Amino acid sequence: MDTKSNPVSKKQAVTSRISYAFGAFGHDIFYATLSTYFITFITSHLFNTGDAAQNNRMVLYITQIIAGLRIVELIIDPFIGNMIDNTKTRWGKFKPWVVAGGTISSIALLILFTDMGGLNKTNPVLYLIIFAFIYITMDIFYSFKDIGFWSMVPALSFSSEERGKTATFARIGSTIGANIVGVVIMPIVLFFSLNRNGGAGDNRGRF
């Protein structure tokens, strides 16, 4: 929105900046949780059967699945951008993907941070299959959200100055979101844990 040509829209412009900053805040909370704590959860808390060899094999399989799916993501990302660019809805091309991508990827991430009803121990093969499906689903829809969200900036205003301010607000929200995860995650885990385990928490707190 061009605040120079439309002075009465200044309040709307400020609201837009703050809203976008909150979006970036949540966006980077998701990314920081995934990139920092997910692999810790996998390697330290998910596989603790008492059989060290089995635990190590499962961690190896999980990391191989993630690495393979990352390669797949590199291939499909250009198609995701093309799909977003060719989307035409009453809400525009970006909002539907940001909302759908954010919702689905968040639900998928929540499931990945569980033992899926104990399948990791009772049926490891089925767990790996379900894990791969949910992870690639999460990754694809996160990409839709990520590309759609950051591509919105040029569409938010005709004014380059306003776009710059919006991007600055977004980066501030993004930085806070990325860093706050490290501050709050362990207190949350400990709050839900029955045993503090020297500050590491237990499986109840992790799941």
UniProtKB/TrEMBL annotation:
It is found in: Cell membrane. GO terms for molecular function: symporter activity. InterPro entries: MFS_2, MFS_trans_sf, Na/Gal_symport_CS. Pfam families: MFS_2 (PF13347). One of its GO terms (biological process) is sodium ion transport. GO terms for cellular component: plasma membrane. The chain crosses the membrane at residues 29-47, 59-76, 96-113, 125-144, 172-194. Coiled coil: none annotated. This is Putative lactose permease.
